[in-house]
Amino acid sequence: MYVILNNLTIIANIDSMNFSTSISPKIIENIEKQYAKSDLPSLSIGDTVKVYLLIKEGNKERVQVNQGVIIAKNNSQLTSTITVRSNLQGVGVERVYLVHSPLIKNIEVLRRSKVRRAKLYYLRGLSGKATRLKQRFN
Amino acid sequence: MPGAGIQMMTRLRVADNSGARVVGVIRVMRVRRRTGTVGDEVVCSIKEADPGAKKVKKGEVHRAVVVRGKVEDARRDGSTMRCSDWAAALLGPNGQPIGTRIRGVVSSNLDRSKYMKIMSLCRVII
After folding, report:
1. At residue B34, does pLDDT exceed 80?
2. Which pTM does this prediction carry?
3. Cβ–Cβ contact B31 with A under 8 A
């Protein structure tokens, strides 16, 4: 029995594998590589980013732009996520995006910040000038 | 930050300009469900209202739809949204919004067939 992707690529020959040991993680990695984006910019905590999201409303498609600060990042290959926090109409909104999603057309980094934390959850309790982050130039 | 949802006694901010400011949930209109989330209709009473409000008064019972919430509001592509508060828009007896403007952000997960008017009144739909 073979694991075939797109009817073209034989990824693994399951018959010849020894199932008494654990299945190699390479199989999942090879499958995920087909869907992962290779052109993502490097995203760090504290970056101000613009996320261009494809929205489908009935038949129409349009691109919605969301700008905010990355306050959390979760690295897990294909299901890696970033949490982008912004203040819209006086309401604090956090959106968690799957960065390899085909609905995300582009992620543009506008500004990098110097932060001393891996997660910026402290920003939830602050507003206005207290949420300013020092800019980083490297 | 993630919570269980809203239930009886939960205070919701009012997102429209009907005159009410805060409502208290009496009942979440879901069958066999104790907690409500974004997009649910609730029965609520007005706890705080503007003194000069003409459409609503403190103590009145109305229906409302929850337009944004502090819990994760999932999208079909796997992304989620959460807001800094719970807010609702008051509905009249015919299911149409009482207010003429919506303040703040509205979730795009609202049922468009029922709440098209609310979606068209608000400025930001996420």
Report:
1. no
2. 0.85
3. no
Asked if the Cβ–Cβ distance from B83 to A97 is below 8 Å, we say no
Residues in chain B with CB shorter than 8 Å from the CB of A93 are: 81-84, 105, 126
B50-64 pLDDT, tens digit each:
999 999 999 999 999
Instruction: Report the alpha-carbon distance of residue A53 to residue A76 in Å, rounded.
Output: 21
| Structure tokens, B96 | 């149409």
Compute the distance between CA of residue A105 and CA of residue A64 in angstroms, rounded to an integer: 10
B80 to chain A: nearest residue by CA? A96
Query: Domain map of chain B by residue range?
Result: 10-125
Residue type, A26: K
Q: Note the Cα A104 to chain centre separation in Å.
A: 9
| CATH top class, domain B10-125 | mainly beta
Nearest CA in chain A to B103: A89
